[in-house]
């Protein structure tokens, strides 16, 4: 699947084009301050989004990206506080990946009331009065993972869905897409568990994974909807001596997961394009501020990485984003 790589190329993936009034900072030629707020700071996924935001700022010129978010992806109150602090500081725009689709609505509405445009990326918000939404079609991503699981298991066997975290709109859509896809691609498979949550960290995911593997003696495949849950399940399978025997399909990548994919201990990774989300998020926020045309909805695409296609240039770029150039990492 092709991935959007340029701001002007987004028209094909968007539902509508809108314009917005310019802000005083843009009109006066002052440096624009764009706050970019991720869900967390530890995952490679967010570092990739950060790198994309920095690339956009450099291309635009006269734009400062202020990157700040909670340390852990379950700290909703901290993310709310970060948004509120940026409103008080009077930034020119906010690019936000909301931890929770409902609890982040009030601070976003407060920003909009203060004439600070808000661009949402990665995960949707319950209220749709933000300027733009830039993300993966997560339901389609979940279905893609189900298709891969059906290929790996012959469309049968006992399957576990390890959910991520309640309130996370993006992963919930992936989980529901996976369940719908299994009905379509593997109607003879049995979902033995789909109501357990991994939690926000790899350690919590590892514990939840161990509990599931201990509870169900016969498991043929597992789907995990994000980076930390995938890595936690991988570790649990390794501990239990079930690597390869239980097929693992996950979401997102980091060095450990790429290595496991290359070794065949993970059989599929759904890849998003967080670099492009960060890049387009900043570009869109600046376009809104300047009164230029922008896209209301942008689908940044989804791809399935396997051991067989790991060296394809497009897949390789998604698996190992260029962090060194933009973040010195």
Automatic annotation (TrEMBL):
The residue stretches assigned to a coiled coil in this entry are none
- Segments of skewed composition (Polar residues): 1-13
Q: Among its keywords, does the record have Hydrolase?
A: no
Q: Where is the composition biased (Low complexity)?
A: 14-25
Start and end of every Periplasmic binding protein domain? 34-293
One function term, GO molecular function aspect:
carbohydrate binding
- Family affiliation: Belongs to the bacterial solute-binding protein 2 family.
Q: What is this protein called?
A: Substrate-binding domain-containing protein
């Amino acid at each position: 699947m092709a991935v959007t790589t340029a701001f002007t190329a987004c028209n094909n993936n968007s539902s509508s084009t809108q314009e917005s009034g310019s802000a005083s900072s843009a009109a006066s030629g002052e440096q624009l301050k764009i706050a970019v707020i991720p869900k967390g700071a530890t995952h490679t996924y967010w570092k990739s989004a950060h790198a994309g935001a920095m690339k956009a700022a450099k291309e635009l010129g006269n734009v400062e990206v202020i990157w700040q978010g909670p340390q852990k992806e379950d700290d909703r109150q901290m993310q709310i506080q970060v948004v509120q602090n940026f409103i008080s500081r009077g930034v020119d725009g906010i690019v936000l990946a909301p931890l929770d689709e409902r609890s982040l609505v009030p601070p976003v509405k407060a920003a909009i009331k203060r004439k600070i445009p808000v661009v949402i990326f990665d995960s949707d918000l319950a209220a749709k009065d933000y300027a733009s939404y830039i993300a993966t079609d997560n339901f389609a991503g979940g279905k893609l993972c189900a298709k891969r699981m059906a290929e790996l298991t012959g469309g049968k066997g006992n399957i576990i869905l390890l959910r991520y975290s309640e309130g996370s709109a993006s992963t919930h859509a992936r989980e529901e897409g996976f369940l719908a896809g299994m009905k379509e691609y593997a109607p003879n498979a049995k979902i033995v568990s789909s109501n357990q949550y991994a939690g926000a960290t790899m350690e919590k995911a590892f514990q939840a994974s161990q509990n599931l593997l201990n509870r169900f003696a016969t498991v043929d495949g597992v789907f995990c909807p994000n980076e930390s849950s995938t890595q936690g399940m991988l570790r649990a399978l390794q501990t239990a001596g079930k690597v390869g025997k239980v097929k693992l399909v996950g979401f997102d990548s980091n060095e450990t997961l790429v290595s496991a994919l290359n070794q065949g201990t993970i059989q599929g990774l759904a890849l998003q394009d967080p670099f492009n989300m960060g890049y387009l998020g900043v570009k869109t926020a600046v376009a809104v501020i300047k009164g230029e045309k922008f896209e209301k909805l942008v689908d940044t695409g989804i791809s399935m990485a396997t051991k067989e296609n790991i060296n394809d240039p497009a897949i390789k770029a998604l698996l190992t984003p260029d962090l060194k150039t933009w973040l010195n990492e």
